[in-house]
Design a protein that fits this description.
alpha+beta; two-stranded antiparallel sheet; 276 residues; 11 strands; Chorismate lyase; seven-stranded antiparallel beta sheet
Length: 276
């Protein structure tokens, strides 16, 4: 085979995948095993695996290894909520229920909690001065062990005077929205802004995306309003664009096969699902 050694290795590995010798979802040999098999350096083997990733043939799962890419069915997330059942919203236990309804398992990382200065985007969304202190709560969300989404919620630091639990490390048992409601801070509605864009290096690593950026991500900015029209939270959720679909129901929508029921109109509905 002609060309650089890493490309020769990549072609040979691609042949094994194309022939079915390595099937979808199967794990590739370790870097050490490939180094021994091809008498190549670690950097050369990594370049070959990167080539396969760029071709969309493999994906690397953090701490687990490199696997032949599977045709993964998308998850359907209902962004609006049903005022009767609380279903939908893409957050908290309702999101977990939607995933479970598709026959799959949703898990989350430990919640990372802290205080930081509001960058321009966060400040604009919450209508607070840039550089103001905000509370952040961050989780990594997985489905069947695969990195699936990143979710970070921001709250004005002043909210902690009434809701000190926002600064507690770990999960809020019933979700932040329910917790705030118990303190008289009612989320009367929320507004979603949806953007499809190229992933950042951090997102590329988390999702195991090809480094050429051909797989985009979907980012949803959700601003929550209380009963007095104050902006009480910003939740930013990032998904792989190729493995997710989103449903928005307006008006009296009948139950559709394959989708969770969700009646009620628009995004300005009560969200009892909670979030981080």
């Amino acid at each position: 085979m002609a060309g650089p050694l890493y490309r020769q290795i990549a072609r040979d590995l691609r042949r094994k995948i194309s022939s079915g010798e390595w099937q979808q979802g199967s794990q590739l040999p370790t870097e050490d095993a490939l180094m021994k098999r091809y008498r190549a350096s670690r950097n050369t083997v990594r370049s070959a695996l990167r080539e396969l990733s760029n071709w969309g043939l493999v994906e690397t799962l953090h701490g687990k290894g490199t696997f032949v890419t599977e045709d993964v069915p998308p998850i359907v997330t209902t962004l609006t909520t049903d005022p009767k059942t609380g279903g939908g919203g893409g957050e908290g236990r309702v999101y977990t229920a939607e995933v479970a309804a598709s026959g799959r398992e949703a898990t989350t990382s430990d919640t990372v909690v802290g205080v930081q200065k509001a960058n321009p985007a966060v400040a604009d969304a919450l209508r607070i001065p840039e550089g103001s202190d905000v509370i952040f709560r961050h989780q990594e969300r997985l489905i069947d062990g695969r990195p699936w989404s990143l979710q970070t919620s921001f709250y004005p630091r002043s909210l902690a005077d009434r809701a000190p639990g926002l600064l507690d490390t770990g999960d809020i048992s019933d979700g932040a929205v329910t917790y705030l409601r118990s303190l008289g801070i009612e989320q009367a509605g929320y507004r979603d802004s949806i953007e499809v864009r190229k992933p950042s290096p951090t997102e590329t690593e988390f999702f195991g995306l090809p480094s050429d950026g051909r797989v985009e991500i979907t980012e949803i900015y959700r601003v929550g309003f209380d009963q007095y029209h104050n902006r009480v939270r910003l939740t930013i959720t990032v998904y792989r664009a190729d493995r997710n679909r989103f449903v928005i129901n307006v008006g009296k929508v009948p139950i559709s096969e394959g989708l969770l029921p969700a009646s009620g109109g628009g995004n300005e509905q009560d969200d009892s699902s909670g979030t981080v």
